[in-house]
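Predicting holo structure, FE2/S2 (inorganic) cluster bound.
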Amino acid sequence: MKKDNILDNNYLPFAARIEDIVIESEDGSLKTFKIVFEDEADWEKWRHEPGQFAMLSVAGKGEAPIGIASSPYERDGLLFTVNRAGVVTTALHEMAVGARLGVRGPLGNGFPVDGDLKGKNIVIIAGGFAFTTLRATLLYLLENRGDFGDITVIYGARTPGMLLYRNEFLDWEKRDDINLYVTIDREAEGWHGLVGFVPQIVSQVNPSPEGARALICGPPIMIKFTMPPLEKAGWQDNQVYLSLENRMKCGIGICGHCSSGPIYVCKDGPVFTRAFLNTIPQEY
Ligand code: FES
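Done. Tokens:
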């Protein structure tokens, strides 16, 4: 996929509208919005990498950074899974199909699917709603299946009803070219899959670091406890990619909101190797 993300004006959003809405979670806090550009020709200007994000803007409310959940190959609409957590995301949750909004992006870097990840065994580790950009990444890997070795996915949520993209997981489960481990925090009625926190499952699966890279997204506490089992298995910090979610405002390295030591998460990230993050003051 050609990297051609530079817009004429990074402040200018694309005019877009909601084409579909899927309620992902049992408590309604997570919804996936399918968004299409008002002007079909804008698709020609849009190229994103798995792992990038965009700013979604709601008139009168503001903008919020949201990870792009659709793969670069899904060209009939952009998918954004939105956690209702603040003014803008609450406003988004209240919008209906047909409502208009702005999309500014794509922003940030992505996972190096064309570079360091190529030819490697890939271990995707995600907790909760952070699976969004990893969905985009997984679809990219599957689209280019021959370019990668083994693919392992370890994904956990609090309850079965909080797991994202359940129908897709059912499809992925049927494939014999993905090692899939889906877990929930505690036993639940009707759940016959794995039970335990993501770090425990990582420890049980014990993925080999040989010729491998790990891509991790999730709450800081999950990341913190996921690292020791990986270290124990022999993973080096330069084999581990993390996607950070610092507070963002402008998304293009101007306002300073997302700064962490010498870097701006929005512009230099949000994807970093753990080896790099170890060189800067950073909480993750
Ligand atoms: S969000 Fe403004 S500098 Fe990163």
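Helices lie at 87-94, 132-143, 166-174, 198-205, 220-232, 265-268, 274-277.
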